[in-house]
Amino acid sequence: MTSEIVWRLGVFFAVLLAVALAEHWRPKRQLTFAKSKRWTRNLALVVANTLALRLFVPFTAASVAIYATQQDIGLFNWLNLPFYWQVILSVIVLDLIIYGQHVVFHYVPWLWRLHKVHHIDQDIDVTTGLRFHPLEIIISALIKCSAVWLLGVPFLAVVLFEILLNATALFNHGNLRLPHNVDRVLRKLLVTPDMHRVHHSTRVIETNSNFGFNLSCWDYLFKTYRAQPKAGHQAMKIGLSAYPDAQKTGFWWLLVLPFKRQATRNPSTANNTTQSDQPDQSGQPK
């Protein structure tokens, strides 16, 4: 367990540093808000999420995997598959579950209230990949642990999956300018920054696309893939239309945001866009 934590933290900080440096050297977009304020707010959420998990989830996916193996619980512990296939299939299925979870968080209203904390960031960079409400993190951890229990995911697969998920979430939220040919090839397998940036558009039809965090195949398979933003990566608006001044708000405001009354629709937008393109002023994707 100790080595697992060391590996996870080591890769996490290495990728965080690498993406942050790459953003500085080769940014895709000019940031519109002070990085110091955004980073302080986003990293404060990381601290809050870590504390919330320690307080309210007294187990980890890795510990659940060890227990499931010891007690012969779960699908992969009952199937007579070679160990390497158990690991490969576990990582793939867990990634599918995270994709499905992401879709559900967009379409179930009370879950969207939590998830929109991630989406109101009006710039997108490596720290956006860390910006989640503590309640969303707790629910996500419980879903992941339940999946590990039911599937009987091996400990090694959990460690590999956690490392991959954290690394790719940091990478695909990065404000990175990848060569077009590299992006075109890479997104056939993995979610790239250009691919995921579309998901952070204020246009609802784009917000409700490109849900993957790691493997890109799920968006192709379930028809949620959108290649590029309509306005282009430089002109597209990031965030949610209902929160145009979200960057002026603080850490505590983000914590109570899900419990605030929803904003009302701005009728001035009603005749300017088609229904599929119209930003939802309540912050709720259609």
Automatic annotation (TrEMBL):
Name of the protein: Sterol desaturase family protein
GO biological process terms held by the UniProt record: lipid biosynthetic process
Residues spanning the membrane: 6-22, 43-68, 83-108, 147-171
PANTHER family named among the record's database cross-references: STEROL DESATURASE (PTHR11863)
Localization (cell): Membrane
UniProt keyword terms in alphabetical order: Membrane, Transmembrane, Transmembrane helix
GO cellular component: membrane
Domain Fatty acid hydroxylase: start-end pairs: 88-224
Single annotated GO MF: oxidoreductase activity
Pfam families in UniProt: FA_hydroxylase (PF04116)
Ranges for region Disordered: 265-286
Principal location listed in the UniProt entry: membrane
